[in-house]
Structures are given as structure tokens and as C-alpha cells.
Design a protein that fits this description.
Length: 366
């Protein structure tokens, strides 16, 4: 007999197919759509990425077609406190946050799991492209990459706890995106060809500066672009509008390509220099969460990635405190960015991850 499963349904094709697969496997399912960001209807229709009325209706339509109950849970307060506020604070400190990680950590796999348990469900499920398995030898749940390399989402799930993994199902982990769309068409889902969300849900169009000004109620203070020697290059529109490694959108007339190499909110300066200045071999990170293994006692060889879209690179990681780590890469990495996550792997097994504090040791390009 199957479990009672509450499926997080965003209105997209992935979560819709996840619900259908679980039902086929004999689970008793209900759908749950989360209202997170109250401004979801304010953006132009082509820019909406979640939390709009149409998304709720798409999810409800799929649930109705599958004959399962559908709930809408208002988690906007939790989202405000744990995602929006943290996002704004990070950018104003000169960091570049990843709000999807915080949303998964504090809302989807915390608040939703708690609500599901309160309603008598055995587990929750999502449409993430990852796999979980129980390792009897260690007594731990392990999280593995999804089999579709282009869709693997393990990077944004590094903060999951053992309790959360034990109570979460990932039906799409062994599928490729093309298979998911085919299953959606076969089930007659109207959202079978719905585009994947690209933007952060509360920043439609990707204009972080405009969001921060609306959210804080204050205009971003302009300041100076300077070169690595401190010479004035021009004026910028606020440090929060820039991130390490950025080249486009600087508005500077330079003799050679310039890249953002440093951001200092205290002095309101953005340093622009050659790309070679972006490469470093090592970083420190805090708030480390070990997922598939217990915290190691000795230095650990693994592969690590410092942003969602990059390939993992060979590295050595060591603990330097209860929840802090130092990661040293075999080869220099470009634009190690405070606020982003460093996520550690052993082949396709996610070992753990942490929030990057800063970089160490200048490297050489290549």
C-alpha cells in the first residue's frame, strides 16, 4: 500500500508529472501550491515565473484531472522573513545570494513538510531532478544528482537535513526533461509545453536593483568605478547592481575588456580590472551542511562547484570550525563570489555544501 503524499505543485510541467507518477505508483496524493510572493501578478505575463493566479489554476487543473485534492498554502510570511529579507541584506553587503537555496531550506522542505505532517501525510514530493537513496552501511539518506545532466538540481538542495530527506520523494530523478514533457502530453496536461522558469520569482526580468529599491524604499546610492590602483574610471548606479565577474552593463569606455573584481559597499566603490584578477585557488565558507556523509575528521578529496551552472572541479576540503570549511581547488576558479554556495560531490553523490565567505590566494588564469 502506498503512502499519503503531499505533492508541491507549482503549476509547471515537472511537478505535474511528479504527481502523476506517484499516483501511478499507488500513492494517495494531494497537490499543494505555495503562495510565496504577493507581487507575482504585478509583472507582465511573459515575465511571470511563479506565484501568479494562472500558476495556481494550472496546478489545480492538473490535480482535478488526476482526481486528487488540491490545496493552496500561504507561506508569504515565511518567504518574506527567510528569503526576501536575506536576499536584500546580502546584496546590500556586496554579496550575491542564491534565494532558491534559502527557499528550499526554509520553505519547501521545512514549512511545507511541517504542514504535511500536521495534516497526516507521510511524505512530501517535488519535481526536482535529483535522486535519494538510503545507505544502510552509514545509516544515512544520500542525495544524488539527477540523471539528466542538463536538469540536475542537487546544487540548490545541499541544505537538506536527514529528516527532510527521509520525508521527501523525488519522482523525476531518473528521467530526462524530454521524457517528462512526453508524459505530460500523454496525460493530457495543458501545461505540457509550458516554459521553464528562468528568473527569480520575485525579480521578473532580472532587475535586482529595481527590486531592492522597491523592497527597501530607498534609492541605491551611486558611487565610483575604480581600477585596481584606485584610479577613477567613472560612476556607477549602486554597488548592489553588480556582481563579481560581471562584464556587461558597466557603461564604461575602456581600452580593453573590464570585469568587476571587487565590490565595497562601505566606500561605495566597484573595482574593475582585467579578467585574470578574478582567479583564485581557495575559499572559505560557513554554515556547512553535510548531507550524504557525516562531517569528516580529516581533509577530504572531492569535486566542488561554486555556482549552479558550472562543472564541479577537483578540490580538497577541510573543516576549520564546527560549520566552516576551507576548499582548495587544484586549478584556479573564476569569480569566487561571497553569498553563493560551494557544493561538494563524490562523483554523483552530493556530500554537502556551505555559503562562500570569501576567496583566498590569487591564482593564474587557466
Amino acid at each position: 500500500m502506498g503512502e499519503r503524499v503531499l505533492v508541491a505543485m507549482s503549476g509547471g510541467v515537472d511537478s505535474s508529472v511528479a504527481a502523476a507518477l506517484l499516483q501511478e505508483q499507488g500513492h494517495s496524493c494531494a497537490g499543494a501550491t505555495l503562495k510565496l510572493f504577493r507581487g507575482g501578478e504585478e509583472a507582465p505575463a511573459r515575465q511571470r515565473s511563479c506565484c501568479s493566479l494562472s500558476d495556481v489554476e494550472d496546478a489545480r487543473g492538473v490535480a482535478f484531472r488526476l482526481g486528487m485534492p488540491h490545496y493552496v498554502f500561504d507561506f508569504s510570511r515565511q518567504f518574506e522573513e527567510t528569503v526576501l529579507c536575506r536576499f536584500a541584506q546580502c546584496y546590500l553587503r556586496g554579496e550575491t545570494p542564491n534565494p532558491c537555496i534559502d527557499c528550499n531550506r526554509f520553505v519547501k522542505f521545512s514549512a511545507l513538510l511541517g504542514r504535511a505532517r500536521a495534516l497526516g501525510y507521510d511524505a512530501i514530493a517535488t519535481g526536482h531532478y535529483v535522486r535519494r537513496e538510503y545507505d544502510a552501511a552509514s545509516g544515512r539518506w544520500r542525495l544524488r544528482k539527477g540523471l539528466d545532466p542538463g536538469k540536475d538540481q542537487s546544487y540548490v538542495l545541499y541544505a537538506m537535513t536527514q529528516e527532510q530527506l527521509a520525508g521527501t520523494l523525488f519522482p523525476l530523478g531518473a528521467l530526462h526533461k524530454a521524457e517528462v514533457r512526453r508524459l505530460a502530453r500523454e496525460n493530457g496536461f495543458l501545461n505540457a509545453e509550458k516554459r521553464d522558469s528562468q528568473d527569480i520569482c520575485f525579480v521578473p526580468g532580472g532587475d535586482y536593483g529595481a527590486f531592492l529599491e522597491r523592497y527597501t524604499g530607498e534609492a541605491l546610492a551611486p558611487g565610483d568605478f575604480v581600477d585596481p590602483e584606485g584610479r577613477l574610471l567613472g560612476r556607477h548606479k549602486g554597488t548592489a547592481r553588480y556582481t563579481l565577474g560581471q562584464r556587461r552593463g558597466l557603461g564604461l569606455a575602456l581600452e580593453r575588456p573590464g570585469y568587476v573584481c571587487a565590490i565595497n559597499p562601505a566606500t561605495r566603490t566597484v573595482t574593475v580590472g582585467e579578467e585574470a584578477r578574478l582567479f583564485r585557488r581557495a575559499l572559505t565558507a560557513s554554515g556547512c551542511n553535510w548531507v550524504s556523509i557525516a562531517p569528516p575528521d580529516a581533509a577530504l578529496r572531492c569535486r566542488a562547484k561554486i555556482r549552479y551552472s558550472q562543472q564541479a572541479a577537483a578540490a580538497t576540503v577541510e573543516r576549520i570550525g564546527a560549520t566552516r570549511i576551507r576548499v582548495r581547488f587544484d586549478a584556479p576558479q573564476r569569480a569566487i563570489t561571497p553569498g553563493q554556495a560551494v557544493v561538494l560531490y563524490d562523483e554523483d553523490i552530493l556530500l554537502g555544501g556551505a555559503t562562500i565567505e570569501g576567496e583566498e590566494e590569487k591564482g593564474e588564469e587557466g
